[in-house]
């Protein structure tokens, strides 16, 4: 099907996908629900006008753009910007759109994107402040940590051990697009990450809820350092703590014994940047 531009040049209309059984649509749907499908294909699914536009602006390769007629009417500017970066564009029938949605009120804009920086090369630490996350399981917390890290100018996050998928829908939404821009790496264990960092002369601090540990407010972060934060339920592993250079803790008043992982990471990163001579205006 073709439509005429004002200048008379034919422009091919977007293909309409009306069937929920469409194979391309079903492959995109699997990216929504399966971490294995994402890993095997090197692709992920982004949902929503703002998040998809953020992917386009961040230089993420957009393989396919799917949108509904209602979305085209409600978000024309977003859609036009995303369309300019998409290799293929498809219009979805309204009843087919929920196949690609992970939200209660979908906006009707979805993008199949290529994961950035996919490489089998081993992670080599750079001389910069680095955040290490061990066994992070909650996608909302992980996304919030990415968002905070970007805001504070942390360039690299290293996921150690088993962690929830960085490209899962909940992580992407909670990160507000920070996943697209930060340098995220994975290593099999916190000990391995610590060994690599210490070989480069970079100290690694283990964040623990222990009053015997050094208050993080008294640590000198004027040179590149790494901070290790554990998962929501168990904190850092004993092996991981022993591999770090020193244990630090967040001084707390009142009767609270600990903070959740996202809150802890925000405070710890703030202290690193505040004392790290990064030039960030705070």
Radius of gyration: 22 Å
Task: Report the β-strand fraction as a percent range.
Answer: 15-25%
Q: What is the top-level CATH class of the largest domain? A: Alpha Beta
Strand order of the largest sheet: 10-9-8-13-11-14-12
What helical percentage do the residues reach? 25-40%
Strand-pairing-aware structural class: alpha/beta
Whole-number count of domains: 2
Structure description:
This protein is an alpha/beta fold. The protein folds into 2 domains: 2-114, 60s Ribosomal Protein L30, Chain: A, CATH 3.30.1330.30; 130-274, Alpha/beta knot. It contains 11 helices and 14 strands. The protein has helices at residues 23-33, 35-41, 49-57, 69-74, 76-83, 139-151, 169-175, 178-181, 190-199, 238-243, 261-274; strands at 2-4, 10-12, 15-17, 43-47, 62-68, 86-92, 109-114, 130-134, 156-160, 183-187, 204-207, 214-215, 226-229, 246-249. Strands 10-9-8-13-11-14-12 form a 7-stranded parallel sheet, with helices on both faces. Strands 3-6-5-7-4 form a 5-stranded mixed sheet, sandwiched between helices. Strand 1 and strand 2 form a beta hairpin. Helix 3 (49-57) packs parallel to helix 5, helix 6 (139-151) packs parallel to helix 7 and helix 6 (139-151) packs parallel to helix 11. The N and C termini lie far apart (56 Å). Mean pLDDT is 88; it is low at 1-11 and 276-282.
Question: Could you give the topology of this structure?
Answer:
Elements: E1 2-4, E2 10-12, E3 15-17, H1 23-33, H2 35-41, E4 43-47, H3 49-57, E5 62-68, H4 69-74, H5 76-83, E6 86-92, E7 109-114, E8 130-134, H6 139-151, E9 156-160, H7 169-175, H8 178-181, E10 183-187, H9 190-199, E11 204-207, E12 214-215, E13 226-229, H10 238-243, E14 246-249, H11 261-274
Helix pairs in contact: 1-2, 3-5, 6-7, 6-11
């Amino acid at each position: 099907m073709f439509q005429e531009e004002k200048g008379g040049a034919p422009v091919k209309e977007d293909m309409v996908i009306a069937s929920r059984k469409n194979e391309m649509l079903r492959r995109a749907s699997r990216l929504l629900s399966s971490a294995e499908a994402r890993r095997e294909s090197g692709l992920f699914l982004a949902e929503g006008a703002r998040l998809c536009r953020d992917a386009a602006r961040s230089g993420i390769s957009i393989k396919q753009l799917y949108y509904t007629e209602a979305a085209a009417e409600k978000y024309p500017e977003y859609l036009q910007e995303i369309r300019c970066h998409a290799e293929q564009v498809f219009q979805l029938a309204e009843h087919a759109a929920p196949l690609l949605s992970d939200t209660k009120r979908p906006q009707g804009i979805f993008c199949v994107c290529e994961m950035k920086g996919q490489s089998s090369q081993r992670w080599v630490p750079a001389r910069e402040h680095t955040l290490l996350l061990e066994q992070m399981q909650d996608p909302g917390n992980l996304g919030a940590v990415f968002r905070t890290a970007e805001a504070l100018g942390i360039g690299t996050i290293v996921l150690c051990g088993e962690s929830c998928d960085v490209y899962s829908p909940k992580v992407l939404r909670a990160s507000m697009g920070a996943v697209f821009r930060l340098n995220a790496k994975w290593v099999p264990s916190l000990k391995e990450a610590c060994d690599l960092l210490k070989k480069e002369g970079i100290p690694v601090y283990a964040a623990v809820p222990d009053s015997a540990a050094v208050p993080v407010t008294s640590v000198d972060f004027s040179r590149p350092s790494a901070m290790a934060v554990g998962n929501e339920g168990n904190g850092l592993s004993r092996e991981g703590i022993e591999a770090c250079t020193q244990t630090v803790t967040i001084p707390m008043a009142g009767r609270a014994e600990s903070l959740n992982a996202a809150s802890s990471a925000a405070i710890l990163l703030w202290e690193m940047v505040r004392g790290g001579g990064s030039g960030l205006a705070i």
